[in-house]
Amino acid sequence: MPVFKAPVDDTLFILNDVLGYERYMNLPGFADASPDIVEAVLQEGARIAEEVMLPLNQVGDQEGCVRHDDASVTTPKGFKEAYKQYCEGGWLGLAASPEYGGQGLPYTLHTAVSEYMISANLSLLMYPGLTQGAVAAIAEHGTDEQKNKFLPKMIEGKWTGTMNLTEPHCGTDLGLLRTKAVPQGDGSYKISGQKIFISAGEHDMSDNIIHLVLARIEGAPEGVKGISLFIVPKIMVGDDGSLGDRNPVSCGSLEEKMGIHGNATCVMNYDEATGYLIGKENAGLKAMFVMMNEARLGVGLQGQAMGEIAYQNAVAYARERLQGRSLSGAKFPDKKADPIIVHPDVRRTLMTIRAFNEAGRAFMLWTALKSDIAHKSDVEADVQEADDLLNLVTPVVKGVLTDKGFDHAVMAQQMFGGHGYIEEWGMSQYVRDARIAMIYEGANGIQALDLVGRKLGQNGGRAVMAFFKEVGDFCEENRNNEELTLYTKGLKKGLNDLQASTMWLMQNAMAKPDNAGAASTDYMHLFGLVTLGYMWALMAKAAVEKRAAGANGKEEFLAAKLLVGKFYMERIMPETALRKTRIETGAETMMELAEEAF
Amino acid sequence: MPVFKAPVDDTLFILNDVLGYERYMNLPGFADASPDIVEAVLQEGARIAEEVMLPLNQVGDQEGCVRHDDASVTTPKGFKEAYKQYCEGGWLGLAASPEYGGQGLPYTLHTAVSEYMISANLSLLMYPGLTQGAVAAIAEHGTDEQKNKFLPKMIEGKWTGTMNLTEPHCGTDLGLLRTKAVPQGDGSYKISGQKIFISAGEHDMSDNIIHLVLARIEGAPEGVKGISLFIVPKIMVGDDGSLGDRNPVSCGSLEEKMGIHGNATCVMNYDEATGYLIGKENAGLKAMFVMMNEARLGVGLQGQAMGEIAYQNAVAYARERLQGRSLSGAKFPDKKADPIIVHPDVRRTLMTIRAFNEAGRAFMLWTALKSDIAHKSDVEADVQEADDLLNLVTPVVKGVLTDKGFDHAVMAQQMFGGHGYIEEWGMSQYVRDARIAMIYEGANGIQALDLVGRKLGQNGGRAVMAFFKEVGDFCEENRNNEELTLYTKGLKKGLNDLQASTMWLMQNAMAKPDNAGAASTDYMHLFGLVTLGYMWALMAKAAVEKRAAGANGKEEFLAAKLLVGKFYMERIMPETALRKTRIETGAETMMELAEEAF
Predict the structure, then answer these.
(1) Per residue in A439-453, pLDDT tens?
(2) What's the whole-number mean pLDDT along residues A100-125?
(3) How far is B253 from chain A (nearest CA, A)?
(4) Which of 315-344 (B) contact A at CB < 8 A?
(5) Is pLDDT at B579 greater than 80 in this prediction?
(6) Which of A87, A353, A412, B57 could form a disulfide linkage to B121, CB 3.0–4.6 angstroms apart?
(7) d(Cα B94, Cα B109) in Å, to the nearest integer?
(8) 3-state per-residue secondary structure call for A429-446
(9) Long-range Cβ pairs for the range A489-492 (8 Å, 24+)
C-alpha cells in the first residue's frame, strides 16, 4: 500500500519564510488567509488527501471508468463519494469569486493544497481541475447571465466542466478544426462534430456537465481566426436554473490509456447540440487561453505532485528493504543486510528527486503568487510585473515540472527493483499517470516553442529582462554572505549560461527561426534549471536567516534544506553548461537530413 | 498498426564495413557465415520479425498470459505458433554448439538477427532468450550426461529454460536466499522454496521446462558462499530422454506487470522438487553468472531494439501528421498543414534517438564479436584481450542501452502527442515494455557498481587501459584526416573526460568507497557516451572510406550516416563534461543527510 504524507511543513516554510506571504495582506482575500488559517487549511487539505483520496488511487487505476450502452459512464468505486466530500469541504471554490459562491481565498493557497490532493489521486483531482478551468473562462468571458446561470453550480461542484479542443486530425494546430456551429437566430447555435481526449467528458459524479467547445461558425474564416467558443451543457438549463432535456452531446467511447485510468477520457460526439457563444465571435481561441494558461499551471503542479509521492514511496522502500551491505562496512550488523538507503547511488537518486521537488514546490507557489498579484493588486506596476513573469514562466512550469515529474517517478520506481515493475506496488501507476502531464495542455515541445517563440520577445523582452535582473540582483546583494556563497555562485553561473543562450537566440534565431526551434527544448530546461536554482538560493537564504533568528526546533529541517540545496548546486546546476552548448550548435545538422532519409 | 522494417542495411554496414567481419573467417563457425550467408540470414530473420512476430506484439500486450486453476499457463493467441516457426527455422540454435544440434554460427550473427525480432516482439523473444541462457550455463558447467540429456531438446526448442534467482526478500543480494536443497543420497536433491519474477516459468509453448534454480544445500555456509545451482525439470526426464512424472514445481501466480504482458512472469513454488546439482557444490553463483553475463548482453540488446522500433514509428508518424507550419515558411503549401517532421524540435528528437540506435547497434555487434573471439579463438592473446573488453563493457551495454532505450521510447511516444498515450497506437507498449530492461538481470544501478567496483580494477585495470589505448590510438591515427576531424576531436574530448574521471576514482574511491558509489551511475553513462562516440568515429571512418572507394548507390546512406554522427558529436558527446563534473563532486553531500531526514 503506497504511503503519502502531505509536506505541510515545507509548504509553510515556502509561504512564510521564503515568499514572505504576509507581505501581501493588502490583496483581496489574503487578509482572510492569515497564517493560522493557512496552516489550518493546509492541514485539513492534507487530511483529505491522505485519508480520503489516497486509498482510492490504486482502485481507480485498476477499475478504470466504464462506459455503458446508453453512453453513460461510471467512475471507479468511491470516486463519487470522495468528490462529494471535496465539494462539501468547499475545496472546489477555495479561490473562486465569492460573488458566485466561492471563498475568494488566494490562488496560492489553492495551489498549495491541490498539490497534496493530486499526489494522492491525480485522476480524481482532474474532475474538479477541469471545472476550475471552465469557471475561469466563463468568469472572464461570459455574460452576466451566463455567469449567474453556470458559475454558482460549478463552484459548488454540482456541475462539472470540460475543455473541448482536440479533434482526431488536430490538436496543436487548432486552426484545422472542423466542428461547426450553425446560428439558430435565437442567439443559440447548433454544434456538430467530434472531439477527442475530453477529460471528464462524461461521468456519474455531477448533475450536469458544462462543456466548453471550440467550433467554427458557418462561414467563419479558415484557420485560427475563425474559431469561436461555446458553452454546451450536457443537460439543458432553464432560465431559473432548472435542468431540462438532454442536449444531443454524448460520449462515443472511452480511450484506453496508459494511465490516469480513474479519469474518463472521452470521445465526444456533438450532433446538433445546442450551444451558446461565450466571448466574441471568432475570438474563441483567446477565450480558451484563459482556461489553458491556468490549466498549464495546473498540469505543472501535477508533475510536481507526482514527483513528491514517488519520492516518498521510494524513501519508505529504501529504508525497509534489506539488501547487501554499505560500501564502507555494515551499518546494521545485527540485521541480515543493510537497508538500501545506505548506498550512495540510492541516496543520489533520492536527493536528485527531492532537490527538484522542493524547488518545484517553491517555483509553483512563487508563480501562483504572481497570478494572485496579477489578478488582484490595484497597483498597476505590480500587476504588470507579476503578469509579465506569470506569462513568461507558465511554459517553464508546465514543461519542466512535468518532464521532471515523470523522470523522477521513473527513478523512484527504479529503487524498487523488480517490485517497481509489478502493479501491486503502485510505482508503475505513478510513472504511467505522470506520463500524460508531458503531453496534454500543449505537449512540452509546444511549451518550449511558446517560451522561445512568443514569451521571450513579448514587449521587447521586458519580462525576461526583469527576471534576469531579479536573479542577478539577488546574487549581487548576497555575494558577501559567506553562508550563501555556494548558492549564489552556482546560481550566477547558471544565470550566465542562460543569459548567453538568450543572447545567442536573439542573434541567431531572428533571421533563422529554425535555430529557435532547434534550441527550444534545451532552452526551456536551461530556464528551468536557473529558475529552480533561484528558488534554492531563496530557500537557502531563508533557512540561514531563520536559523540565525533561532530555529525553534526546526534545526534538522533547516539543515536538510541547506544540504539538499547544496546537492542541487553541485550535481544539477552544472547541466546549464551542457544546455548552452547544445543551443549554440544551431539547427543546421538536423535540418540538413532529408525527410526521406529519416 | 505499428510499423517496423528491420535495419538490415545498417547491420551489414556495421558487420562488413565497420567491424571488418571477414577478417575473422579463421574462427570456428565464421567460415560458414560468408557475406552472402550473413545477408541471407539477416533477410530471413527480418522477414520472420516483420511478418510473424510484429503482428502478435499488440495482441500479446492486450491478452497477456492466463494462469488456470490447474496452475497451467496459456500464452497469448498466436505465440505458440510463432515460437514453433522460430524453432523450426533453427533460430534458437543459430549460435549453439553443433555437437548438440546447434548451427554453430557466430554469436555476432545471432545478436544481429535477434535485434530485429526483439524489436518486433520483446515478450515473445524472451522465451527462447531464457532458453539460450540456460543452454549456455549447462554447456559450460553441466556434466556430459546433463549436456546430452538436456541440450539437444533445448536447442531444438522443444524444451525451454528459465533462471530462478530472486526470492521475495532478495534479488540483488542473493546471499540472503532461502530456497533449500536436501541431498537424497542418489545424487539428486529435493528443492523447496519460492522464487519470484520467473520469466517463462510456466507456459504452453514447449513440452518441458528446464528450470535452473539457485538454492542452499542443507548445512551449507551462509551468504553467497553457500549457494548451489540445480537443474529442476518441470517434467522428469528418463535416462532415455523420455518424459516421466510431473516434478512438484508449479506456478503459484502470474505477476501483474507494467509491460511485457505476453511473457509469463511467474511466482514458482518448489515443493520438494527433484533437482540435480550443476557445477560444484556452493559454486552456484559462478555457474549462474555464465547465464547472467550472456543475459545482460541480451537485455542491453532489448534496450537497443526498443529504441529502434520506437524511432521507426515516430518517424512514420512525423511524416504523416499534418499540423502547423514550418517556422521558415510553409513547406507543403498545397496541404492544409505541413507534416511535423519539418519542425526542428521533432528532428532533434528523432536524430537523438537515431544517433544512439545506430551507435548502439555497432556497440552491440562490436561486443558480440569480442564474445565470439573470447570463446572461439585459439590465439591466447586475442582471447584475453577480447575477454577483457567483453567483461569490461557488459555492464555498459546493459545499463546504458537499456536506460537509453527507455528514454527514447518515451521521446518517440512524445512525438505522437495525445495519441502516444492511447494504447491503440502502440507507443505506450514500447515504453512499458522497455521499462523492464532497466531492472532485470541486475538493476542498472548494480551494473554501474559492477563497472566501477569490479570491472575497472580487474587485473590491475588491464581492460580499461587497453580500451583507452584503443580509442586514443584511433584518434591519433586519424587526426590528420580532415574528413574525420569532427569525429576524432569530439571523441578525444570525451575520452579525456573519461580518463580524468577514471583517475579521480582511482585517487578518491580506494580509501572512500562511497565516492565510487556516488559516481557509479554517472561514470557508467560517461563510459557509454565515449564508447558510443567511438562507434560513431569508427562508422564515420568506414563511411568516408566507402564513399572514397565508390559508394555504389549507397551515397544517401553514407551521407546520412555522417550527418547523424555529426549530430552525436555536436549534441550528445558534450554531456561527458557534465558527467565528469558530477563524479568529481564526490559522496559527501549525499552521505551527510541523516537517514531519517530523507
Answers:
(1) 999 999 999 999 999
(2) 98
(3) 13
(4) 315, 318-319, 322-324, 327-328, 336-337, 339, 341-344
(5) yes
(6) B57
(7) 8
(8) HHHHHHHHHCCCCCCHHH
(9) A489/A569, A490/A533, A490/A537, A490/A568, A490/A569, A490/A570, A490/A573, A491/A530, A491/A533, A491/A534, A491/A536, A491/A537, A491/A569, A491/A573
B327, B517, B575 ranked by CB distance to A344: nearest: B517
CA atoms within 13 A on the CB side of A470: 16
Whether B431 sits inside 8 A of A318 (CB atoms) is: no
Can you tell me the mean pLDDT for B266-277?
98
What is the pLDDT confidence band of residue A172, given thresholds at 50, 70 and 90?
confident
Query: Measuring CA to CA, which residue among A370, A432, A438 is closest to residue A400?
Result: A438
3-state secondary structure of A271: strand
Distances (CA, A) of B46 to A54, B4, B50, B95, B113: 47, 10, 6, 17, 7
Q: Could A575 and B570 be called an inter-chain contact, meaning their C-beta atoms sit closer than 8 Å?
A: no
Nearest to A513 among B328, B354, B587 (CB): B328
Instruction: Report whether pLDDT(A552) > 90.
Output: no
Name the nearest CA neighbour of B107 among B340, B330, B370, B486: B370
pLDDT at A551: 79
Question: What whole-number distance in Å separates Cα of residue A564 and Cα of residue A556?
Answer: 12
**Distance of alpha carbon B302 from the chain centroid:** 5
Of B258, B346, B574, the CB nearest to A578: B574
Distance CA B561, CA B558 (A): 5
End-to-end CA distance of chain B: 45
A440: contact with B, CB 8 A cutoff: yes
Task: Give the CA dihedral A341, A342, A348, A350, nearest 10 degrees.
Answer: 20
Chain B neighbours among A 209-248 (CB < 8 Å)?
none
* Residue type present at position A4: F
B403: cell is: 536506460
Is the per-residue pLDDT at A290 higher than 80?
Answer: no
ipTM above 0.90, yes or no: yes
Continuous H helices in A377-450: 380-414, 427-437, 444-449
Q: pLDDT band for position B394 (50/70/90)?
A: very high
Which residues are registered as beta bridge partners of B276?
B188, B231
For β-strands B249-254 and B265-278, DSSP reports them as: antiparallel
Q: How far is B315 from chain A (nearest CA, A)?
A: 7
Is residue B391 within a helix (H) or strand (E), and if so which, with residue range? helix B380-415
The per-residue pLDDT for range B46-92, each reduced to its tens digit, is 999 999 999 999 999 999 999 999 999 999 999 999 999 999 999 99
User: Span A155-171, mean pLDDT?
Assistant: 95
- pLDDT over threshold 80, residue A486: yes
Segments making up each domain of chain B, as ranges: 443-589
pLDDT exceeds cutoff 80 at A344: yes
Helix (H) or strand (E) holding A246: strand A243-246
- Residue whose C-alpha cell is 537523438: B352
Residue A107, by phi and psi: left (phi above 0), alpha (psi -120 to 50) or beta? alpha
Which amino acid, one-letter code, is at B40? Answer: A
The DSSP bridge pattern shows strands B180-183 and B188-199 to be antiparallel
Q: Which is it for the CA torsion A437, A443, A446, A452, positive or negative?
A: positive
Catalytic site residue from B255, B441, B476, B483: B441
| Cβ contact, residue pair B256, A422, below 8 Å | yes
- Of A161, A116, A537, A487, which Cα lies nearest the Cα of A304? A116
Q: Which residues of A touch B424 (CB under 8 A)?
A: 256
Looking at residues B565-573, what average pLDDT do you find? 98
Give CA A35 to chain center in angstroms.
25
pLDDT on residue B299: 98
Q: What is the pLDDT of residues B145-182, one digit of tens each?
A: 999 999 999 999 999 999 999 999 988 888 899 999 99
pLDDT at position B327 is: 87
